[in-house]
Specification:
By secondary structure, the chain is an alpha+beta fold. Helices cover about 20% and strands about 40% of the residues. About 10% of the residues have low confidence.
Length: about 180
C-alpha cells in the first residue's frame, strides 16, 4: 500500500514539474518574439592558476604493505601528493608530501592482537640519500582486530629533493614501498 502511494505521489510530482517547465518555456518564447533580439555573451572567468601552488601526484609501488611477525598489519597507501612551497619572491622552499593511509588489523577477534603503527617510526628516503621522519600525522594508526582506520602523514621535503622510498617498521619487521612521479 505504501509503495503504491509513493509511486502515485512521485508521478504527480513529476507531472507537475513537467507542466511547470513546459509553461515557462512558452513564456520565454513569447518574450523573445515580442521584444528585440536580446543576446548576452556570457563568459565564465578563468580560474586563477598562476598563484596556485603546483601539486605533484605520486604512484606507489606496491600500493600496500603487510607488517608484523604474524602479518597482522596491512597498510594501503590511498593517495600520495605533494605541494610545492614558495616564499614571497617565488623561490622554492621545499614541498609538503601528504600520504593518505588505510591501516587494517588482519588479526581475528578471537586472537585480539593489537598494534600501533607509529608515524615516528616511518622513514622517507629522498633521492639525495637522506631520510626524514613524519612532520605531522592525523587520524588513527591503531585499528581494532578485523577493522581499519585512516591516517594522514605529512612530510616536509627540503628544496630540490624528491621522495624515493617509504619504509614502515612494526614489531621487528620492515617493509618499503617506492614512490615515483606520475
Amino acid at each position: 500500500m505504501i509503495k503504491i502511494t509513493l509511486k502515485i505521489a512521485l508521478f504527480f510530482a513529476l507531472a507537475t514539474t513537467f507542466v511547470a517547465c513546459k509553461n515557462s518555456t512558452k513564456d520565454q518564447t513569447e518574450e523573445n518574439t515580442t521584444s528585440a533580439t536580446n543576446t548576452e555573451n556570457v563568459t565564465t572567468p578563468a580560474t586563477p592558476t598562476e598563484n596556485a601552488p603546483e601539486i605533484i601526484s605520486y604512484t606507489v609501488t606496491p600500493d600496500s604493505a603487510i607488517l608484523g611477525k604474524t602479518k597482522e598489519a596491512l597498510v594501503k597507501i590511498k593517495e600520495a601528493t605533494s605541494v610545492l612551497l614558495q616564499d614571497a619572491d617565488g623561490k622554492s622552499t621545499g614541498a609538503e608530501l601528504t600520504l593518505k593511509l588505510l591501516i587494517s588489523n588482519k588479526s581475528s577477534l578471537d586472537l585480539k592482537k593489537y598494534f600501533s603503527l607509529a608515524s615516528s617510526d616511518a622513514r622517507l628516503e629522498l633521492d639525495n640519500g637522506n631520510s626524514i621522519t613524519v612532520e605531522k600525522s592525523n587520524g588513527s594508526s591503531s585499528p581494532e582486530p578485523e577493522a581499519s582506520t585512516e591516517a594522514e602523514w605529512i612530510f616536509n621535503l627540503p628544496s630540490g629533493s624528491a621522495p624515493k622510498k617509504l619504509s614502515f617498521f612494526l614489531d621487528g619487521t620492515r617493509v618499503s614501498v617506492n614512490l615515483a612521479k606520475k
